[in-house]
Every structure is written in C-alpha cells, then in structure tokens.
Fold this sequence. Notes:
The structure is a homodimer.
Chain A: E1 2-4, H1 7-19, E2 24-29, H2 35-47, E3 50-55, H3 75-84, E4 89-91, H4 95-98, E5 106-108, H5 117-120, H6 124-139, E6 143-147, H7 151-163, E7 169-173, H8 193-198, H9 201-214, H10 220-232, E8 237-246, E9 275-283, E10 286-294
Parallel strand pairs in A: 1-4, 2-3, 2-6, 3-4, 6-7
Antiparallel strand pairs in A: 8-9, 9-10
Amino acid sequence: MKVIKKIKEMRHISQEVKSKGIAIGFVPTMGALHEGQLKLIDVAKKNADFIVVSIFVNPLQFGADEDFTAYPKTFSRDTKLLDSRGVDVLFTPSDKEMYLEGYETYVELPELSSVLCGASRPGHFRGVCTVVCSLFNIVAPSLAVFGEKDAQQLIIIKKMVRDLKLDIKILSVPTVREPNGLAMSSRNVYLTDEERKDSAVLYQSLILAKKLVARGERKAEKIKAKMRALISSKPSAKIDYIEIVRKNDLKQVETLEKMKIDVSQPFRVEIKDDFLIAVAVWFGKARLIDNITLQIPKLSVSKNSKNYH
Amino acid sequence: MKVIKKIKEMRHISQEVKSKGIAIGFVPTMGALHEGQLKLIDVAKKNADFIVVSIFVNPLQFGADEDFTAYPKTFSRDTKLLDSRGVDVLFTPSDKEMYLEGYETYVELPELSSVLCGASRPGHFRGVCTVVCSLFNIVAPSLAVFGEKDAQQLIIIKKMVRDLKLDIKILSVPTVREPNGLAMSSRNVYLTDEERKDSAVLYQSLILAKKLVARGERKAEKIKAKMRALISSKPSAKIDYIEIVRKNDLKQVETLEKMKIDVSQPFRVEIKDDFLIAVAVWFGKARLIDNITLQIPKLSVSKNSKNYH
C-alpha cells in the first residue's frame, strides 16, 4: 500500500490508474478506524479494482466547541489495518494543502443540512460536503462508499453528487454494531465502561420504535415519547434529539403513513416515503448517533383515488 | 459540430475524447454570442484539441427582478457562428435536467461574492459558481476560458477551482471592444442608439482613471470622483458602482499603493497588489460593466524595513 500525502501525487496516481481503464473505489475517513469503516472498504473492493482510502480529520466540519483537536488518532494502527485489508493507496493530505491561504469556497445543501445533526452542529454538513467534493476532485473515483450510521450525511452526499453532476456512484453499507448493539464509531473510545454499557440503549430505543410500529402505532409523538423514556432511564444519557422524518427530504412527520396521493395531479407521482428514526445522545464526552429506516407497507389512499392504486 | 442536449450524452463524448488522451477546452456561455466570446473560443482552440461550448441561460444566477426571461436568444445564429469557428460540440442542457426536482446544492464564495456586482446582485455569483461547477463535472475539460470583462467572475472561478481542487486550467481573454470603446456584451442589444453612444463613457472613465494614476494621483476617492463626474455627464447613465479594489481579494483601497511590508513578519511575504478599477452603470434597460487592471510599479516600504527590499 502506498501512503500519499501530496495532492499532486494523488492526482497523478489516479490519472494513471484511470488511463488503464481501471475503476477507482474510494472510502473517505477521518482515521481511528473501526470494523464499520473496514466493511466500507470491503464493499469498495467488491465494486472497484483500485482502492483509495483517505484519512483527513477535516477542521471545517467541527464546530468551535467540538472535539477537533481531541479526535482520536491511531495512524500506525490504521495503516496496518488498511494494508492488510488490501487497500492500494492511503491518501493523507495536510490541512494546509486542503485549505490554502485565503480559502473561501463552500459546498452547501441548506435544507437537508438544517435538521437533525445539522441543527445541533451548524456548519457541520457544509464542512463535510466541501471536503468530500474536494477529495472527489482529487481522487476522481468511479464510486465511493459511506456508512448508513451517518444517515443524514449519506443522504446529503447522494444529493450533492446528483445535483452537481459528479460522475460518481455512491454505495452505502449497513451499520456495524458491537455485541450489545452499540453502533461502531471512532468516538466510542471516549466512553467510560459505564457509559459504554448505558449507550446500548440507543439501539434498544430504535428496536422499541420498530416494535411499536409493527404493533400498529403510527403517531410519531407517541413513539418518540416511549423512546425518550427508555433512553432517559440511563443516568449518563443526555438526549440531543429523537426525530422521525421522511427519508427523502428529512422533514418531520406527525404520523408514519404513506403520503396520500394527490388526486388533483393528472399523473401518478412515484411516492417513496421510507421513514428515518434518528437519535443523537450524549454519554459523557461522546455524542453518539444511530438510526433505523422503516418502510410502512400499506399505502393509504384517499377515497376518491381508487384508480390511482 | 455536434449539438448535444442530454447530460448523459455529453458525458459519454467527453469520456471517449479523454480516453484517447485528447484535452478538452471548454467555453461556457449564455448564448447571444458576440466577438468577445468568439475570442474565448479561439484561445481554447489554441490550447486544446477538442472544443466544447455550452449555451445555458442559467436561471440560478438571475435575481427575481432581473432579465432572465428577456435575456437575448439567437440560437440559430449562435450555432452557425460556433460551427464556422471550429467548435466540436455545442452543449445545450435543459433547465429541468440541470436543476432536477428538489435541487438544493450550492457552491459559494461568500467573501469575494459580497462586493462589486455581488453587492448589487445578491446570489448572482452563487448561481455562477454552482452552474460552472456542474458544467465542469459534466464536460470534464482540461481547461476553460473566461473573459476579463467579467473580472470578478474570473477571480471567483479561479479561486473556486483552486479551493475545490478541480483539475482544470482557467485561461482568460482581454475584453473585446466596439470601435467607441464599449465592451462587447450580449446585453448591449438592449441599448437604444443614444444609450449606445453614451455608454462609451464607461471605458472613457477607466482611461481617465489610468491617466490620473499615471500623473501621480493615488487617492481612490479623488479618482472615483472624477470618474463619477465624467459618467454623470451623460444623461442616460445611472451609476450602480465605481470601485477601486485590490485585485487579489477585491477589498476596497483608499490609496493605490503597494501594501507596506510588515516588518514584524520574520519572512518576506510575496506582495501582489494589482488594482482593479471596476464600474457598473445602467443605460436604460442595460446594466453594463467594465474594468481595467492597474499595476503600481513602485514598492513603498516603511523606513525600518530596508533590508526587506
């Protein structure tokens, strides 16, 4: 595995690989790798013949009060893991080269970035989109792989790629969990033993929501109240948000029901409304997030619209 | 010359051309072509072997009260001109495909976009950057050519390319003028005969500024006052702005002098301060812009900094 620091050198490698007709698969990371990220690499390898992983702790996506300087760094361990996983290039640019003097260009999706983690972390997704866009322009991959644990990030990146006409396929990989259900995250190292035990409640709250929906509950407020009660039972938990949103636009819903078909529309509109149940909870110094996607099988249609089934 | 409407088809052509190792030169336009834009194409042809010109009147860069729907359209004339100039592909995407349903991704340079035309036209440069970024991603050129008449646009695009690590060389071409000095622009068709005559004063005011500087005048306010008096002498002129700014950051200056070297800095910093004198003036329905760049030859240094010469 080659370790490349300079943008120019990375570009040169990508150009050479592509000139041979070989597809590049890319996994951007901030290092401190865990099994979840290694799964992304496995998926990249299944879908591309040359794998680039970046490690770049991106200052632009951290708020002033956040853990940028404390973010865990395990570089030599990461390097060994990536090498043994069959990665071709590890790209580790410097802050200085990524953000040249007088830097001021931002890529932003204001609507999708204003809710959920974006509401708690203003500027976060602007930072993510900007750096991912730059990394894409340097690495020039055919596909890139992201984790479903960061559901909002995945949705935003997919839309950015679509909107800015980037010729890159975005693949996603289901969340990898610890035996107790805790979603793997580089930030889990911040947890004390007790917090780690308590934090299992995140996934338990999502499973509870799923069960409630399976039993017929459709009111978002009722589901959220029960999740809140369960999470709050852990003394170390401090809830940031519990939200139920429509997955295509991240808008909050009151009821988990398929959107009614508007019979005033002349043509049937394809209605995709998967729901995302997402939580963010502080345990000590760690702000942890988790989510599940729910599909509501039944299609409710208004009485006048039978012919639109 | 091929005329291509579909993004997918344009991408396919670009990939094929690039796979043969041929460099693509790109000139994005809004059509209603004039000799100024045709010069951009000549420069593209000198520097690349396959030339793509786009015609796309980008709704995102027009304000609500601006001339989006009235913007001149001379498509069949444009097509003939481009064909005769040796263009390989004319790319004319639809609004609908460029801005898909639910579009919400923006590329923005907030500082450089807040002054000059950006102050008069909020959102304009966000629209320009966003569409240019998308067009770059579709056409995948090695180089792109822009006119120096749109000085602020050129500076912003260059910085966007640098910041987002786009692997595209930006070339620029000096303003092409009518015999009376009026800078060529698609919007000149809005002018009545009288306004067209009067509008020669734009370039005359820039020449006046240049003369004043050559005679030793360094106070921006004095230069601007004389330019203002000259332009105001034309009854149809309505000044939007007259500005003198440092070209590297578009910040207003009080005096046209090389920045003093800060002797508290341990190393000599390279100081590039060309000045941009820029004007925007309404003549009837047409908002016309023009500019010149001035280089101030003498380097002023503070008394304590002789060793930094």
